[in-house]
Design a protein that fits this description.
With about 250 residues, this protein is of the alpha/beta class. It has nine helices and seven strands, in the order ααββαββαβαααβααβ. The protein has a single domain, classed as Rossmann fold, CATH 3.40.50.150. Helices cover about 30% and strands about 20% of the residues.
Length: about 250
């Protein structure tokens, strides 16, 4: 996994910036209950998305485990950030109306623990909104993807939609709604993809050795339009509602 302490300094500019953040925030807002008054954004990073999850009457707090990320987020969300591990949240049981986690579950093997903790802090009827199938969504059918596809292992993805749904059900979280949003600025170029492969940016799915990396980067260098972005990915965001105590699944 990347070192997000060092990534903080240039995270936003390399991840689509404001356009992508606005698209993600709008998608989260579409999945929130109309009466939600509190929301926790897990792994909020620099807070670029978090500060845009805004509507009248909604208080949004960002949480992250990386000091450097949280320092940046604190400047955007004065008094509304907390340093926390997503597996041990500093909030009482049933104290929040909504929790979201955008681009988190694909990075970690302890998805079930995160879902369990989100369920604990949610009130009955509250919702958890999470991105699923993140790495698979990056395959837009381009020539870059044709080279990378044999190395992607979607069946092993921590955030595979069916896996997340099964784990969520174990904690009283049932699917409620789904939406998509565009990853503006995330259209891959052969040049940038090769750089990211060498730098270890794709650790959640690429496990090739140096020889494989060298072969792939050479193949990427042979593609036309080395600095031309391919189409941007469409990410999936799914919400899960917390059942009331004693409620039976429908």
């Amino acid at each position: 996994m990347l070192d997000y302490e060092t990534e903080a300094a240039h995270y936003d500019e390399t991840r689509g910036g404001v356009p992508r953040a606005e698209a993600a925030a709008d998608a989260v807002l579409r999945l929130l209950p109309p009466d939600a008054r509190t929301l926790l954004d897990l792994a909020c990073g620099t807070g670029l998305v978090t500060e845009r999850i805004a509507r009248p009457g909604l208080r949004v707090v960002g949480a992250d485990a990386a000091h450097a990320m949280l320092r940046t987020a604190a400047g955007r969300l004065p008094g509304r950030t907390v340093r926390a591990d997503a597996r041990r949240l500093p909030f009482p049981d049933a104290s929040l109306d909504a929790v979201c986690a955008v681009w988190l579950l694909h990075l970690v093997p302890f998805t079930g623990q995160i879902l369990a903790e989100a369920a604990r802090v949610l009130r009955p009827g509250g919702v958890l909104a999470v991105t699923v199938d993140k790495d698979a969504c990056h395959d837009v059918g381009s020539d870059v993807d044709a080279l990378l596809r044999p190395h992607r292992t979607p069946a092993a993805a921590h955030d595979r939609a069916d896996r997340v749904t099964a784990l969520a059900a174990a904690h009283g979280l049932t699917p409620a709604a789904t939406t998509t949003f565009t990853g503006h600025g995330q259209g891959a170029t052969p040049e940038d993809t090769a750089r990211r492969l060498r730098a270890g940016y794709y650790a959640s799915w690429f496990h090739g050795d140096p020889a494989t990396t060298a072969t792939l980067t050479a193949a990427l260098a042979s593609l036309p339009g080395p600095d031309r972005p391919r189409p941007a990915p469409e990410y999936r965001l799914v919400s899960y509602a917390k059942s009331a105590p004693g409620a039976q699944p429908v």
